[in-house]
Amino acid sequence: MKTILVVEDELSIRSFVCLNLRKKGYQVFEAETGEDALVLFQDQTIHVVILDIMLPGIDGFTVCDEMRSLNPTAGIIMLTARSQDEDKVKGLLLGADDYLTKPFQMSELEARILSLLRRLSHGLEKETSGVMVSGSFSLDSLRNKLTHSGTEIRITPTEACLLQFLISNKNKGFTRDEILDQVWGTNYLGDPKVVDVNIRRIRRKIEPDPKNPRYLCTEWGYGYLWKE
User: Could you tell me if residue 149 is left (phi over 0), alpha (psi between -120 and 50 degrees) or otherwise beta?
Assistant: First the structure.
């Protein structure tokens, strides 16, 4: 049974989300504050976190950052009333996998969760799973483990799926939409900029100079590619 932690200070929203997720067969934990959420996150095995940004005490951005340092393999969907692009980018750069703005349809949240669980379960084609080597990089997509010259780099499940797709098609460019279809799924309803933000996040981790990437490159006017 997949476990979901719902972190939301508004009781009506939290109860509504938790009730519907339990009806879908998930084991659901709930927290009103970021502090309580971090305790549950460390005490329980959590697969997906539904995380509101505006919380009493420490905010969702801080919680997201701390959760990523504790466990890079959990999925995080940020849930907030804010709609500004800078907030979306900030959350994604801190390690969130997806972003959903209130008000929302429960069916959309459920679809985002299923899409994220697919990535957590390495839902790309089986023949591209396992360990892949490209130059001094080694990606174990089954364990979300990336190493560069023997040094491990912490990556999220979404980052692992994105790298898995690009490295398995190295030196070939793909548009943002093509990457969305392969990594996030053809029915993904979120902001397509999630691709760009994840590219930026990976570059910060692997590139000597993220502004002039050597590995995860931009094919100007087209899209992105992994260069070997």
Answer: left
Q: How many residues does the chain have?
A: 228
Find out whether 49 and 157 touch, Cβ atoms under 8 Å: no
Q: State the alpha helices, DSSP H only, in 146-210.
A: 157-167, 176-179, 193-206
Amino acid at 207: E
| pLDDT, position 125 | 44
What span, in angstroms and rounded, lies between the C-alpha atoms of 62 and 53? 9
Name beta bridge partners: 98: 77
pLDDT over threshold 60, residue 7 = yes
Tell which residue, 137, 128, 215, has the closest CA to residue 165. 128
Return d(Cα 13, Cα 25) in angstroms, integer: 19
Closest CA to 60 of 74, 84, 42, 81: 81
Residue 211: exposure state from Cβ atoms within 10 A (0-12, 13-18, ≥19): exposed
Tokens of 87: 């907030």
Residue 129, pLDDT score: 52
The count of C-alpha atoms lying within 13 angstroms of the C-alpha of 49, restricted to the half-sphere facing its C-beta, is: 35
The tokens for 97 are 């996998």
pTM over 0.85: no
Gap between the Cα atoms of 144 and 164, Å rounded: 10
